[in-house]
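Exercise: predict the structure of this protein bound to adenosine-5'-diphosphate.
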Amino acid sequence: MTSAHLVILGRQGSGKGTQCERLVEAYGMIHVSTGVMLRSAVAAGTELGREAQAIMDTGNLVPDEVINGIVAERLAMPDVVEHGAVLDGFPRTPVQAQVLEDMLDLAGTPLVGALNLDVPVGVVIHRMLDRGRVDDTEEAIRRRLDLYESETEPLLSWFEDRGLLKVVDGLGSEEEVFLRLCTTVDEILG
Ligand code: ADP
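Solution:
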């Protein structure tokens, strides 16, 4: 089977990261999470990490050209080429979506779906304050959610226009949500 990519969209605190881990385990794709990649660059103290940390701490977005470079490099690696990716945290802006489309056209790998894990704002704020990650200050959370509305929500119609968008209800237990996601992925992969 040729590889295919999926995108997972969802507000911060929607449970995207956890569900992506389970999906890649079930379907054999590679989890490509920009948040994970950036946090490991921060932990490793690389130049990218130092640059990204200050931005992430305020809840702002790392510049498109930086993120696009990181993702392009990752998508070109043999494991992703062979197995396909579940993209988590990318694309997050219309510029990133366009770059993704161009990268995939060049590589000949189709994007087969964009799953929107839908959880209301009021619910995600509580979840994020509870998880207590170091970059989860109240200020940063508010900033990230604002940016989600302004930068990332417009992507929903971008994906919908291409016939790729599937909305999955993200309320309920982790298991319930996972089963809903699997039903949708099965439909997509046919
Ligand atoms: P969250 O979903 O809680 O924002 P992530 O782990 O996806 O967590 O991202 C953490 C931070 O990393 C973001 O707040 C942002 O600063 C940066 N980041 C991650 N992905 C991107 C991206 N595609 N474009 C710009 N910045 C990004």
